[in-house]
Design brief:
With 243 residues, the chain is an all-alpha fold. Helices cover 59% and strands 3% of the residues.
Length: 243
Amino acid sequence: MAARSKTRRVYGWLARSVGLVLLAALVVLAATLIPLLLMRRGPIESSAFMQRSLREDPATRQPCAEVEHVWVSRESIADSLKVAVVIAEDQKFVLHNGFDERSIRRALEERERTGRQRGASTITQQTAKNLFLSPDATYLRKGIEAWITVWMEILWSKRRILEVYLNVAQFGPCVFGAEAAAQRYFEKPAAQLDVDESALLATVLPNPLRLRAWNPGPYAQSRRDEIVELMAELGRQRHLRGL
């Protein structure tokens, strides 16, 4: 009888443990899916990175008085900017499932060889980070980013991912989104950006707090020219059409 009672207690403990694990998994899944489903269409007026800038802008160590951000639809963003950003940031964007395994492998090899950390994040990963997370390069943040990336690729179209990215990406201190950047730096709407202007905005994305779209330095000018050349060379590829 004692052995049977002990067995029942063990099974009861296991059942409760499994139940708690399943409940936690459902809570995590719901916390991921509900926001992503709600964001499948329409404007997104803020992001984790924008809120962070209101607390402290990394460039000045002071809070932004306000965030410059205006949501626009993908139709109101110049095709040249869409192509420039994909070519500069993630050339396989339309083809991959959210992760560029080859770039990740190269980044790991370079880190082992030189000790330098090289970026390998896709546009989808960057969108997940900008919307929900922080720039802290911890394993926990990377894991959460990967989890959100998987579901974002499942629930959103590539066009939606790019539309959101171009509306929440940071282009300078306190400046977020293509429309605010176009108005601030070129005094025109994002729909009217030309190839050179688009390439320059794409140039600053890896480090918008050090690279300048206004009065660009030698590196930014050189990188802009490189992106313009790549746009002429690659811009007509089938997977880049209709972004």
